[in-house]
Design a protein that fits this description.
The protein is of the alpha/beta class and 314 residues long. Helices cover 34% and strands 24% of the residues. The chain has a five-stranded mixed β-sheet with strand order 2-1-3-10-4, sandwiched between helices. A five-stranded mixed β-sheet has the order 7-6-8-5-9, with helices on both faces. One of its GO terms (biological process) is protoporphyrinogen IX biosynthetic process.
Length: 314
């Protein structure tokens, strides 16, 4: 048994918080081991002057960590689940999906104004096509401003660019201790979250049974079922985290409900539906929901988005 276990993580403040959370949880489960965090930068961290969608999103925030896993520089990699592509490199698997934080988006605005009350033509910052599309569907008058960078950078740009509001994930805001800045939890009927949003994922080598056993206490069954349904939904749509797809899976009375949406980038159309079924059929439910949206024209919307931004995530 190797006593020291190296944990790989992006080196942003939020990513390192997540890695420390994983390390602390693992230390409680395995007091005799030494968990050490190794921070590193990814392609997505280096390219800050180009919209994510124009780069393409295959492993933007994960590839370097996955390379370190494959060459045994680290034993496990900690990710935001929403950053993990639905197709992982050969030889890697998601060993644990941690208990999910509230997965929705939040509005942070000047003078604590809610989304419905923002002035006409208000400047709203987001780096996400999913958020942009859904907010424009709800409020076509809003002026969306693309802002990139880690959480603290985006909060700084919110002030520097004198934006009226900014949209971010609740989970990151809470984890960094900025809850007092929240003006509104954006309802799911306005903005569905990104696939996997709110959960921390732990990636390992597929054949590394020892590490799989070590991280087993972190795997949260209900969160895994919900997120596996969401990921199957996105995989069938052949979408990535930089296309206008929203999804939210949740369990109630031993059933899994999955809501999904594909939205036109300019907010002119939205195709949305939900499906409910047994938890054990999580992935099947995700695929079925995607098929419903495809029948209703989702592929046309996604193709237009890919053409407009000049990227391909297939």
């Amino acid at each position: 048994m190797v006593n020291q276990v190296l944990i790989g993580s992006r080196d942003s403040d939020l990513a390192m918080w997540q890695a420390r959370w994983v390390a602390d949880a693992l230390l409680k489960a395995h007091p005799g081991r030494n968990f050490v965090i190794k921070g590193m930068k990814t392609k997505g961290d280096h390219i800050l002057d180009v919209a994510l969608a124009k780069i393409g999103d295959k492993g933007l925030f994960t590839k370097e960590l996955e390379s370190a896993l494959l060459n045994d520089s680290i034993k496990l990699a900690v990710h935001s689940m929403k950053d993990l592509p639905t197709k992982l490199p050969e030889g890697l698997t998601i060993g644990a999906i941690c208990q999910r934080e509230y997965p929705g988006d939040v509005l942070i605005s000047k003078n604590n104004i809610k989304l419905a009350s923002l002035k006409k033509g208000a400047l709203v910052g987001t780096s996400s096509l999913r958020r942009r599309a859904q907010l424009l569907y709800y409020r076509p008058d809003l002026q969306m401003v693309d802002i990139r960078g880690n959480l603290n950078t985006r909060l700084r740009k919110f002030k520097e660019l004198e934006l009226d509001a900014i949209v971010l994930a609740y989970a990151g805001i809470k984890r960094m201790g900025y809850e007092e800045m929240i003006s509104q939890l954006i309802p799911f009927d306005i903005c569905l979250p990104a696939v996997g949003q709110g959960s921390i994922g732990v990636e390992i080598k597929s054949n590394d049974d020892e590490t799989r056993d070590i991280i087993a206490p972190l795997d949260h069954g209900p969160s895994r079922a919900a997120i596996e349904a969401e990921r199957a939904f996105m995989k069938r749509l052949e979408g990535g985290c930089q296309v206008p797809i929203g999804a939210y899976g949740y369990l109630h009375d031993n059933l899994l409900t999955l809501e999904g949406a594909v939205i036109d980038l300019h907010g002119k159309a939205a195709i949305r539906h939900s499906i409910t079924g047994p938890v054990a059929a999580a992935r099947k439910l995700g695929t079925q929901l995607a098929e419903v949206l495809i029948e209703r024209g989702a592929e046309k919307i996604l193709q237009q988005a890919r053409q407009e931004f000049g990227f391909h995530d297939k």
